[in-house]
Amino acid sequence: MHTLARFASLALLSTSAATAASPPAPWVASWQASPQPVWAETFLFPSLVPAHLQGQTFRQTARLSLGGERLRVRLSNAYGRQPLHIGAASVAGAAGQPPQQLTFDGQAATRIAPGQARLSDPLALPTADLQAVQVSVHVPDLTPLHTFHWDGRQTASIGAGNQTLAPRFDAAATTTARLFVSGIEVQGRAGARSVVVIGDSITDGATASLDRDQRWTDHLAARLAPQGVAVVNAGISGGRLLRDGMGQAAIARFDRDVLEQPGVASVIVLIGINDIAWPGTAFARDQPRPSLAELQAGYRRLVERAHARGVRILGATLPPFAGALPGTALNDYYQPAKDALRGQLNAWLRHDSPFDAVIDLDAALRDPADPGRMAAALDSGDHLHPGDAGNRAMAAAVDLQAVLPGAVPAATR
Predict the structure, then answer these.
(1) How far apart are CA 84 and CA 202, in angstroms?
(2) 363: confidence class by pLDDT, cuts 50, 70, 90
(3) Is 299 in contact with 241 (CB distance < 8 Å)?
(4) 276 Cα distance to chain centroid
(5) What pLDDT, on a 0 to 100 scale, did the predictor assign at position 410?
(6) Which of 127, 136, 250, 289 is most buried by a 10 A CB count?
C-alpha cells in the first residue's frame, strides 16, 4: 500500500475507534411537574380539573430548561387507583408546529399501572435551551383523574377526540393545572447536568405571571443553561417538609422528585414555611406547630440522603411573610410566634446547618426598613409570594459557583 494511503487509512481507523469509544451523551432531566393527588371537592381550593376525561385530549406547554437532540417524556399514574390507558401522545416543537407521535416500546398506546410512571421511547426532536414544547395526551377510555399538578402557571387545553397530531387544537375547556406529564428529559450535550429545586408555592410559581415563565427557577435556568446545566422545578404549592400538604411531604417524595432525576448533580431546598404557618389555620386547625428541632431533623434527613447519592445539597433561608394572605380564609397564616420560629430556623441555616451551602433568600427579599416583611417592589401583593421582580431577585441571589463548584466561570455568576 502506498505510504500516504496507508497513513490515511490508519488515521481513519483511529478516528473511527475513538468515535466508537466515545460514550453517548447523557440523558438529563430538563423539566418537571411533580405529581400530586387530586383532592376532594371539600378542600379549601378547587382542583381546576374535571372528575374524569373520556375520549379527550389534554394539551399543555412546557418550557425546557436545557435543549438537546432527542427527548423523552414521562407520564405518571402516581396516585391512580386503576391502570391509566394512554391511547396516543405527541410532542410539538412549538405551538402550531406539526406534532410528532410518541411511542412506548414502539407502540402508540400504553398502560401505566397504579402508582407507576412510564417513560416514552426517545424522540429525535432537536430543541434549544429555554424552548417551549407542547405535549398532547389522548385518553380513549373513562379515566378518573387522581394524579395532577395543581399550579402549572400555564394555560392547558382539553378537547374532544384524539387531537394528538393536530397542529391546531380545538379546545372545549382550559385549565392551569397539569395532567399526565410529570417530566421531560433531553439528550445531546456531553457533560450536561441538572439542578433540582424542591419547594412549595414560592418555587412552584404561585402569583408569577401566567404563561410567561416567571418563576424564580425559570430565571435561574436562564443563568445556568449556557453552562449546560438544567434547572428542574420540583415545587408543589402547599408543600411541606415534614407532613403531607397539597402534595406529599418533601421527605417522602425526595427520592422520586429529586434523586431519581437523570443527571442530577445538585439540589436546592426551599421549604418549611407551610410547616410553620399552616398549624392553626383552616388548613390544619388542630395540628401542632413543629419544633425547631423537628425541622432541623427533617433537613438533616434530606442532606444525608443527597450525600449518600453523591449529590450536592444547598439550603435556602425562608423569606419574610409578615401580613401574609390578608382578606383570605388564611389571614391567620402569619403570627408573631410563627415568625419567631422562622427566624430561629434561618439563623440555624446560616450558621450551623449541614447543607453544603446556603442561599439567603430572606436577605434578598426582605424590606431593609422592616425585615419581617417582603420589600414592596418584590412582593406580589399577598405578602407571602414574590412577584415577577421578586422571582428575578431570588434567582440573582444564587451564587452559581456554590451550586456547582468549578463548573461555572466566576464572570458568569
Answers:
(1) 31
(2) very high
(3) yes
(4) 23
(5) 44
(6) 250
Name the maximum alpha-carbon separation found in the chain.
89
Q: How many residues does the chain have?
A: 413
Phi and psi, residue 302, nearest 5°:
-65, -40
Burial 152-183 (b: 16+ CB within 10 A, else e): bbbebbbbeebbbebeebeeeeebbbbbbbbb
Q: Considering the domain 192-412, what is its CATH architecture?
A: 3-Layer(aba) Sandwich (3.40)
Residue in this structure with the C-alpha cell 490515511, named with its chain if needed: 8
Contacts of 123 (CB under 8 A, 6+ apart): 70, 71, 72, 73, 91, 100, 102
- Grid coordinates of 294: 423537628
In the prediction, which pLDDT does 22 show?
65
Cell triple for residue 285?
Answer: 386547625
Domain boundaries, the chain: 33-182, 192-412
Residue 316, CA distances (Å) to 90, 101, 364, 372, 402 in order: 37, 40, 11, 16, 12
Find all residues with CB under 8 Å of 398, minimum gap 6, and list them: 220, 223, 268, 359
pLDDT in tens, 31-86: 999 999 999 999 999 999 999 999 999 999 999 999 999 999 999 999 999 999 99
